[in-house]
Write a structure and sequence with these properties.
The longest helix is centred in the C-terminal third of the chain and has 33 residues. The chain contains 15 helices and no strands.
């Protein structure tokens, strides 16, 4: 009888990346170092969740977290232990639900209370700060909004919507060239973000480059339609996961339609 060898300790770099929340680099590093395949898959999933949150795809993020929750407890080694510390699926899913309804709040204190859980989670902190910044901007508190958007960027330098909102403040102040520069940086970070293309189009039109602006706005419309389809698919998937009976009902409906088509093609009996 042979005993399984203990899991080798994770290299310090990989643990540092996990602690810093640099999920893309962590997944790539784990893959390059030949880490356990379940750990690599988990890191890639968390990176995808981070992307979903940045894009405000809360439904897709919840779907991924539901799958991640099934394997989180069994992830091996030091990385698995760190992931259980930094990524808590149940708390994150609750935070995403709070974020989803945050636009209904019109009072900064009420919003802060609503988002307390999201602010406490590393993966949702930047998104929660961004939501607070949006409310401050809507209330006309430009300085406070800029401060909170900047804090969101510090919490997650890749949060391109917070950067977009900083550009929006510049645009509202009439600093169109500065806003254009910010939106171009946004598009470099997130080439398929329709809001970045749309706002870029507006900023260049304000500077008199109408044709260029129209091209950017049309690109934004195409990307927005694509996103709408993807979001609808994610919502349907979540509904089926919550209510499996819908999946079976769909199968029954399809089967009934196929039977009707078959009978129509067969024609009357002889």
């Amino acid at each position: 009888m042979t005993l399984d060898a203990p899991a080798a300790p994770a290299p310090p770099l990989l643990l540092d990346l996990v602690r810093a929340g640099e999920w893309r680099r962590a997944a790539a590093t784990a893959n390059a170092q030949g880490a356990d395949v379940d750990v690599i898959d988990a890191l890639q999933t968390i990176h995808a969740v981070q992307d979903d949150i940045r894009a405000r795809r809360y439904v897709a993020a919840r779907n991924r977290l539901q799958a991640y929750r099934e394997v989180a407890a069994s992830l091996p080694g030091d990385v698995g232990a760190e992931l259980r510390l930094y990524v808590q699926p149940d708390a994150l899913i609750e935070a995403l639900h709070a974020l989803e309804g945050s636009q209904r709040e019109s009072d900064p204190d009420a919003l802060a209370n609503r988002l307390a859980g999201a602010l406490a989670q590393p993966l949702t902190r930047a998104e929660a700060l961004n939501a607070q910044g949006v409310l401050q901007a809507m209330l006309g508190h430009e300085a406070q909004a800029r401060e909170v958007f900047s804090a969101a960027r510090e919490a997650d330098p890749g949060h391109y919507r917070a950067l977009t909102n900083l550009g929006n403040l510049d645009m509202e102040a009439g600093h169109f060239a500065q806003a254009e520069q910010t939106y171009r940086e946004v598009i470099q970070m997130a080439p398929e973000y329709d809001g970045g293309h749309h706002n870029l189009g507006v900023s260049v039109r304000r500077q008199g480059r109408v044709a260029e602006g129209v091209r950017s706005i049309r690109q934004a419309q195409r990307l927005a339609m694509k996103r709408s389809r993807e979001d609808t698919q994610a919502e349907v998937k979540e509904q089926f996961a919550r209510r499996p009976v819908l999946k079976y009902a769909r199968v029954v409906v399809i089967a009934a339609l196929l039977l009707i088509v078959f009978l129509a093609l067969r024609g009357p009996g002889t």
